[in-house]
Amino acid sequence: MAPNKTLCLSLLLAAAAAATLAAANGGKLSPAYYSTTCPKALPIVQSGVVAAIQKETRIGASLLRLHFHDCFVNGCEASILLDETASIATEKTAVPNQSVRGYDVIDDIKAELEEACPGVVSCADILTLAARDSVVYVQSTVFCHAWMQLGGPSWEVDLGRKDSLTAGRAAVNTSIPPPTFNLTALAASFSAQGLSFRDLISLSGSGRFFAGGHTIGVARCVSFRGHIYNDSDIDPSFAESLQQICPRSGSDGVLAPLDLKTPTHFDNCYYRNLLRKQGLLHSDQELFSGNSEADSIVRTYVNQPSVFFKDFVQGMIKMGNIKLLTGSQGEVRTDCRKVN
C-alpha cells in the first residue's frame, strides 16, 4: 500500500479509537460503538476492503454503490444482502440491483468479524464502513488541474446500526433512480430520502451509481445506449466513440468508464467531463444541462475540489443515517445473507 494511503487510513482508525464517547447504548450511534465489544472491527473492515481493491480495482466503486442501493431502499439496514427464502423476496434480483456487486467482499469481512467477536458487528455497519474505506483507498492526489494536488475525502463513521429482518424488493424499482431520470425526477428521488439538491450533485447522478461516486467505476451499454443515440446534450465525438462499442442492439453488458480521465480514482474529474458534455449516462449530464443552480455547483466542484470533498462527505454521512434500525430494533446477523 502507498505510504500516503496507509497514513490516511491509519489516522482515521486512530481517530475512531481515540474517541472520548463510550460505546453507544440504546438508539445512539457513535464512532466508538465497538471500541470495547470488538476493538478490531474497523481494522478488519479496512483490511478486507483494501485486499479486495488490490485484487480488483473496480470493486471499490462496487462497494460504494452497494451502500447506496441499500440505503435508498428502506434505509441503511443491509436488506440488500438478504438472499431469497420462502418468506423473503430478495432485493438482489430486482432490475436496478441486477448489476450490483461486492456481496462476496462483505461475506469475507463478516466471516472474519464473526471469528474475532461473534454476533457483535452488524452487516449494515460493515456496508457503511466499506463504502468509506473504498473512497479513502481509491482517492487520487492528482486532479483535473494538473498543477493541483490535494488529499482526498475522509470522514468518521458513526456506528451502531442494526440489520433488518426482511427485504424490500417491491420498493427497489420505486426507490432507486434509473439512469434515464431528468434533473427534476432525480431531485425528487433524493428529497424523498431527506437529501438536498446539493447532496444530489455531490452524491448521485443516476441509479447506476453516484455522481461523486461516478468518479470511479463503470456502466453497462444498456444503461447509456439511449444517451449516446437519442440525446442532443452530448459531445458528438464522445457519442461516436461509445457507439463503436455499444451498438443500437446487443452487447448490453459491454462496459465503459463513468469517468474517462481517472476511472479508478476518486477525484473531481467527473465534473469536468460534464462541462465538456461527456457524461456517460443521461442522468449524469442532467447535472449540467442548463439549470443555473446545478450548473453553478458543478463548476464549483471543477475549480474547488476541496468544496466537492466537503459536500461529498456531508452527503455520505446524511445518506448513511437514512431510516436506521438501532437499539432493540432489528438484529445483528451472524450471516449477512440470512436472518438469524
UniProtKB/TrEMBL annotation:
UniProt source species: Linum tenue
Active site positions: 69 (proton acceptor)
Keywords carried by this UniProt record: Calcium, Disulfide bond, Glycoprotein, Heme, Hydrogen peroxide, Iron, Metal-binding, Oxidoreductase, Peroxidase, Secreted, Signal
Source superkingdom: Eukaryota
The protein's required cofactors: Ca(2+); heme b
UniProt site positions, description: Transition state stabilizer: 65
A Pfam match: peroxidase
Main location: secreted
Signal peptide: 1-22
GO biological process: hydrogen peroxide catabolic process; response to oxidative stress
Annotated protein name in UniProt: Peroxidase
Known catalytic reactions: 2 a phenolic donor + H2O2 = 2 a phenolic radical donor + 2 H2O
Family to which this protein belongs: Belongs to the peroxidase family. Classical plant (class III) peroxidase subfamily.
Residues that coordinate or bind substrate: 177
EC number: 1.11.1.7
Entry-linked CDD domains: secretory_peroxidase (cd00693)
Classification via SUPFAM superfamilies: Heme-dependent peroxidases
Keyword Amino-acid biosynthesis set for record: no
